[in-house]
Amino acid sequence: MVRVAEGDSAAYETLYQRYKSRILTFVMRYVGDREWAEDLCQEVFLRLYRNPRAFDPRNRFSTWLFTVARNLSIDFLRRKRPAVSLDSGADEDMPRVEPSGPEADRPLDRTLLRELEGNIQHTLNGLSDKLREVFILCALQGLSYEDVAQIVGCPAKTVSSRLARARERFAQSFDSYLAGKGRPML
Amino acid sequence: MRCEDIRRLFSESFDDRLDAAARMRFETHTASCPDCAAAYVRYETLFGAVAALPAIDNESPVPYPETARVFRKPELPVSPLRRAATAAAVILVLLGIGSLAFEAGRRGLPPGEDLKAPLEVAEVVLPDYEAQKRIRLVENGARNVATLAEIAPSYSDGEMVRVLDHASGELERRSRLLLELEADRLGSFHDEFRRTAGSLGELCLELNARLEADSTTELRLRQARDLVRRRDLDTVIVRLANFGRSLPETELTAPVDGDAYTIFLAGLDQLGRRDAPGALQFFEVVREAPTIRNSRLNELTLHVERFIRREVGGPAATLDVELSSEPPQVLPRALRVYRIPRQGIWISSSMAGEARFVVPGQASGNGRIIVRPRQPDAERRIEIEIRTPETQPSKRKL
User: Rounded distance, CA B377 to CA B146, Å?
Assistant: First the structure.
């Protein structure tokens, strides 16, 4: 970040390559729209480029970047909340991430992963914003409770309780989906 | 505790955030309540799969404002002094890379050369989501060091070293987790490791640049060397770990002859944990670099986590599992049996379960696994693939 602040474009590009996937995943899961998510992701990095000194070096860089991404996503949802119906065909509307690599070779995980990949957005959309953001950051991105607490601005204990609720509702929603499709639940 | 109280703890248990007392209550309850145990298995399976979902990526170009001018700093030649200083910093930070860093330090090689070397990997079978989780841990570690490099100049000496010490310890732990990836992921693992190690190397260069820019560089490097020296390469360290939870470690002050198994047992004796039931998930034996590079971290552990059950029906149930070989020794006595309708079952050594676990005694021995339904009249034919670190996968019908 110091180098970015000095105008070093190579350092900026390194940061972009390092974090773009995580930020895009977060924003995509948060706003539920791939095209908007890509735009927002670009905006996150443009803000970083334009004003690198906004980063307080006492904080962790990734935490700061997620905070920027979250704030932009919240602003976006306030301005233009996409009309995503819980009953819409998630399989058709939502982007699918095709399993690749070793995951696709493991019969045990493959079916579950495929189910999740096809419907995770559908299930996430059923969560409130507060629960969804914690779920994405902790359960999907693997951030610590403490980092997420800093990003969303609440105590770690609150993150823990929100995450527990989010997981519970996610599981219920996912089970309902499977049941609705006539598939046995896990 | 009531079942509903236990289920409120699922999330924190899954993230390993329970304190010791809550963990004890949780384990006690799930060990005696098949419903909660099955529900937790299901919970772990679902959210393990959630954690393994691949990240979304795109090929969008790096965004710049329309008026931005793109320039790059010229690459400056690296002086011998800087290279030597870099090596010291790398040794410090890359304690996380364990044997590689040791090797680099001993031979005094430029770290970049060694980091690119192929890595020998413990042959351990883990579910994919575990592997993903562990890769993520290491990636997070790399990012932490990146941040550290950025903020290093703002720290005073004592803080600096303390932070570095912590970071190196964290990296060590995480890289060891990475070392346990399963054998059939070797290709992607190697790529992942090289990428991670490569980025760490870059980060170390950054860190070194920060150190050099500081007037107390020499002091810090001396402290760094002290940190390295604490890890006496002639001392065998036996550390017991339990999937992220710290367990005691012991140092065998005199070199111990024999293979890793002998050393491990000696370490357990020193710890007084040889008979501790169900506490040991895996272990690490750290010896001098050439040994560890050629050894397999889990060669004494018989992980049975790859199994495919072809015919499954009915509600989830707990199965009794017996795993045996001669002579029985020191492995977890509890196994968790995961059973997922339509997909199969899998078993992992975990904190609780109905399993009986008789451990293997010889590093070269074969494991034997018997899976019995709890209902004696239920007929099940279960096809299980057993992979031990010492043998090729074999399929047995039980």
Answer: 59
> For A103, which of B14, B128, B140 is closest by C-beta distance?
B128
Answer whether A10 touches B (CB < 8 Å): yes
Length of chain A: 186
According to the model, what pLDDT value does residue A180 have? 63
Asked if B65 contacts A3 with a C-beta cutoff of 8 angstroms, the reply is no
Q: Does A97 touch chain B (CB under 8 A)?
A: yes
| ipTM of the modeled complex | 0.78
Residue B362 is encoded by which pair of tokens? 């010889």
Residues B144, A18: C-beta atoms closer than 8 Å: no
Q: What angle do CA B143, B159, A18 make, to 5 degrees?
A: 10
- pTM reported for the whole predicted model: 0.41
Question: Which of A7, A16, A184 comes nearest B62 by C-beta?
Answer: A16
**What is each CA distance from B308 to A37, B38, B39, B123, B347, in whole angstroms?**
39, 19, 21, 19, 10
Q: To the nearest 5 percent, what fractions of chain B are helix, strand and coil? A: 45, 15, 40
Tens digits of residue pLDDT in A143-170: 889 889 989 988 999 999 999 999 998 8
CA dist B191 to B93, B117, B183, B366, Å?
A: 21, 11, 13, 31
Residue B26, token pair as written in the block: 């949780």
In sequence order, which residues have a C-beta less than 8 Å from that of residue B256 and are 6 or more positions away?
B236, B262, B263, B266
Q: Coil, helix or strand for B245?
A: strand
Token duo for residue B277: 């039931």
Q: How close, in Å, is residue B294 to chain A by CA atoms? A: 25
Long-range pairs for A41-44: beta carbons < 8 A, 24 or more residues apart: A41/A69, A41/B58, A41/B60, A42/B60, A42/B63, A43/A72, A43/B63, A44/A68, A44/A69, A44/A72
Alpha carbons B170 and B176: distance in angstroms, whole number? 10
Q: What is the pLDDT of residues B284-302, one digit of tens each?
A: 223 222 222 222 222 222 2
The CA distance from A149 to the nearest CA of chain B, in Å, is: 15
Task: Kindly identify which residue of chain A lies nearest to residue B343, measuring between CA atoms.
Answer: A108
Quote the tokens at residue B25.
């209550």
